[in-house]
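Please decode residue identities from the backbone states below.
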């Protein structure tokens, strides 16, 4: 840890980071790396701590004293401002961010992603504290190309689909498509943060993650989450594979995504944390443009990888089609394609992702198998004997 320098060769001073949503998927990976590789202190705020328990106990851990957990719901807790004041930097990750909630719990989604983030922005601005706020690639919505005729050659032109922070518009569906409640709330909080920067000098960085995946993402329904719950696609497909049931392709699985390994993405956040002069005032796409697949291709690849890591033979019919109305309910809609433009993050931070989709699935599904296979087997045998 000694002699750590930033991208411009300046020594990095130890800092205190107030991390809100530290107990979630991204937060747990960020805390892990901050503890093992830096001298920084983390004030970890969340309502849950299961995913960072291994960092908090036992007290003999080498970073003991550098991470403190504060069980706080930021909706209604006056301790929040004090923690932000104590810190040099606030990282806000707290949000409802599972698509199954956007159309079924639109009010909770809007409150969580906009209203609950307001005090965080206000306290940072009023106290002259730096803020790294987590937005989403969903703010781009649909691509311009999605509105062209199916056979238009322009659909192949990157100008019609690559998503750029400074040039692409935000294209959402009609209000009755409540899927867009999340993207719209995130867009408004981005605009508010940007305006605080412009009018009041807030030092901010906005992160737009493009489908970060890896261990500890979401939950396996009925094991460490509600049995009726619908997590994001990695956990949905993992759950299907663990239970030897076909993977469900929503509306045929034609939508396209670029998936990035959580450990690659965390490197980018690290560079933002430790290089404020290069990161302040910027919005950054963080994704892996080389890992594009349709959801159907993802299902096929996960089936192959899971068979390799578990030694189990795949089902003869590994996938099944399901309508979005049946799977998510009324008001669902989808982003058609998400390829991040990497120009700004390359220029400012010199960062590039490394891990191929196959490799990241292999390490993630090895983790899923080791962590859950036995518990799923036991839960399934209980259901059949009852
Ligand atoms: N994982 C991705 O690929 C991805 C993609 C786009 C955007 N994001 C954004 O990144 C952030 C983190 O995502 P994640 O994947 O780690 O999600 P996550 O659900 O695993 O983590 C969010 C954490 O915030 C906490 N939280 C929510 N509301 C809170 C409140 N009122 N008070 C205290 N804690 C609260 C939750 O308990 C949870 O631990 C979110 O803002 C999300 O919108 C993530
Ligand atoms: O991760 C991101 O970058 C962002 O995108 C996600 O949105 P989305 O990619 O649509 O969410 P997933 O649940 O991961 O679904 C991906 C695709 O798989 C499909 N899907 C999902 C689950 C399933 O079982 N089957 C299936 O076909 C969905 O319809 C969608 O087309 C979430 O909105 C956020 O976590 C985040 O802001």
């Amino acid at each position: 840890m000694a002699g750590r320098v930033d991208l411009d060769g300046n020594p990095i001073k130890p800092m205190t980071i107030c991390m809100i949503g530290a107990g979630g998927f991204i937060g747990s990976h960020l805390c892990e790396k901050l503890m093992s590789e830096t001298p920084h202190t983390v004030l970890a705020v969340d309502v849950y701590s299961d995913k960072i328990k291994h960092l908090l106990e036992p007290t003999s851990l080498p970073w003991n004293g550098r991470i403190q957990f504060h069980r706080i719901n930021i909706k209604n807790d006056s301790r929040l401002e004090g923690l932000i004041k104590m810190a040099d930097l606030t990282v806000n990750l707290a949000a409802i961010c599972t698509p199954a909630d956007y159309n079924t719990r639109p009010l909770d989604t809007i409150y969580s992603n906009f209203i609950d983030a307001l005090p965080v922005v206000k306290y940072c601005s009023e106290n002259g504290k730096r803020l790294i706020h987590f937005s989403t690639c969903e703010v781009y919505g649909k691509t311009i190309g999605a509105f062209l005729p199916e056979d238009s050659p322009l659909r192949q032109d990157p100008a019609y689909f690559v998503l750029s922070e400074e040039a692409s518009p935000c294209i959402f569906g009609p209000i009755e498509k409540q899927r867009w409640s999340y993207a719209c709330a995130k867009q408004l909080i981005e605009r508010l943060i940007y305006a605080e920067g412009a009018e009041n000098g807030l030092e901010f960085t906005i992160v737009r993650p493009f489908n970060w995946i890896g261990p500890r993402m979401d939950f396996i329904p009925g094991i460490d989450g509600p049995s009726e719950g619908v997590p994001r696609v990695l956990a949905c497909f993992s759950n299907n594979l663990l239970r030897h049931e076909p993977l469900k392709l929503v509306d045929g699985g034609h939508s396209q995504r670029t998936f990035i390994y959580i450990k690659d993405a965390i490197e980018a956040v690290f560079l933002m944390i430790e290089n404020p002069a290069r990161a302040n005032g910027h919005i950054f796409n963080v994704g892996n443009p080389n890992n594009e697949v349709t959801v159907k291709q993802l299902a096929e690849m996960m089936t192959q990888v899971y068979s390799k890591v578990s030694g189990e033979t795949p089902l003869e019919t590994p996938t099944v089609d399901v309508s979005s109305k049946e799977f998510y309910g009324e008001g669902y809609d989808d982003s058609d394609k998400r390829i991040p433009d990497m120009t700004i993050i390359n220029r400012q931070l010199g960062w590039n992702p490394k891990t191929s989709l196959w490799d990241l699935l292999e390490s993630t599904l090895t983790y899923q198998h080791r962590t859950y296979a036995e518990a799923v087997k036991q839960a399934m045998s209980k259901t059949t004997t009852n």
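Observation: The pocket of uridine-5'-diphosphate-glucuronic acid (ligand 2) is lined by residues 97, 99, 136-138, 182, 209-211, 232-233, 236, 248-250, 253, 255, 257, 295, 334-335 (CB under 6 Å).
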